[in-house]
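ok so i was messing around last nite and threw this chain in just to see what happens. nothing serious, just curious
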Amino acid sequence: MGIESKRIEPHWNYLLALDADLVNVSRFVEFHKTNFDCFSIEIARLLLTASAEVDVLCKQLCKAIDPASTAENIHEYRDAIRPVYPRIPKFKVAMPRFGLILRPWVEWRKKTGVPVWWTAHNKVKHQRDAHYEKACLQNALNSVAWLFVLVLYLYKEKARLGELVPSPQLLRADGSNFAGAVIGGQDGGIAYVLDDR
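result:
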């Protein structure tokens, strides 16, 4: 047949598609604090899409931690994931192109914390007529950043080895989670530090 094939990680490719969508949005809305409350149909789509994928990956990560897991909501995800990966709430996602550092998991530092963007996602999903303005840039950026971190932890061995390629255009781990560039093959990757303790 003349074509070789190797396993790809579908959630990584999905993240890359959302990262590319963010690049497109950035052509119309500058990613700057004065625009964080800006909302639109496209930003709503990004928030809803990234949040739905977060839900899927949280379930998968909970199952990876405990195959008998029945976690089905943000509280149960937090209670299952945080004890095993206590550094997640401190994970910072950089967007160097815009000079931004996102802390999408910061609310999980509290025992009962729920991300602001998650609450916004639910309001936009179920009551868009009353809460459409919550589909804002800040919430969309944080939902995609949360997804980025989740994908790294779901595929943590590949992330540590720099095998999740290509790298996103906009999203980067900050210095404490960046282990360096990996050169090899056709695409260089980024190695991540994902210490569990």
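not much to say yet. The first strand starts at residue 93 and ends at 95.
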